[in-house]
Automatic annotation (TrEMBL):
Protein family membership: Belongs to the universal ribosomal protein uL15 family.
One GO cellular component term: cytosolic large ribosomal subunit
Domain of life: Bacteria
Domain Large ribosomal subunit protein uL15/eL18: 78-147
Gene name for this UniProt entry: rplO
Pfam family name, one: Ribosomal_L27A
Region (Disordered): 14-39
Species whose genome carries this gene: Candidatus Blackburnbacteria bacterium RIFCSPLOWO2_01_FULL_40_20
Subunit structure: Part of the 50S ribosomal subunit.
Name listed for the protein in its UniProt record: Large ribosomal subunit protein uL15
HAMAP family: Ribosomal_uL15
Any Gene Ontology biological process: translation
Record key words, sorted: Ribonucleoprotein, Ribosomal protein, RNA-binding, rRNA-binding
Amino acid sequence: MRINQLPAIVQRSKKRIGRGIGSGKGGHTSSRGQKGQKVRGRIHPLFEGTKVKKSIIQRLPLQRGKGKMKSRGKKALVINVKVLNSLPDGAIVDRELLVKSGIIAKEASLSRVKILGDGELTRKLTIKLPITRGAIEKVKKMGGTIEVA
């Protein structure tokens, strides 16, 4: 095999700077320019230099307290009206019944539960959970009642 018959190298390795004069990017300042903050190390991504106006961090409202980094509110676990057709006629729909019937998991019962109006309802039910207007109409149409606490 000759040199002109060697396969072509697809990728070159990254040039390591500051590793001696013979490396191609070595020697005195190693292609970093001269002196200053950018030469010496990493700059914080939120650094904006010396400004007359406030930086973006100072413009944000100050949030106090222990849970300032946590999300504000957890979304409710939504259940559509069509899922409630698996429940017996005349049942009182609350968290315990939904867990017992397997519609929601026991761990999920701790979060908020809300009933939405997607699908058709074929049962007469009494609902004791938060519910949307569309779902209220469908429950009342079947002769059910709403008891929101």
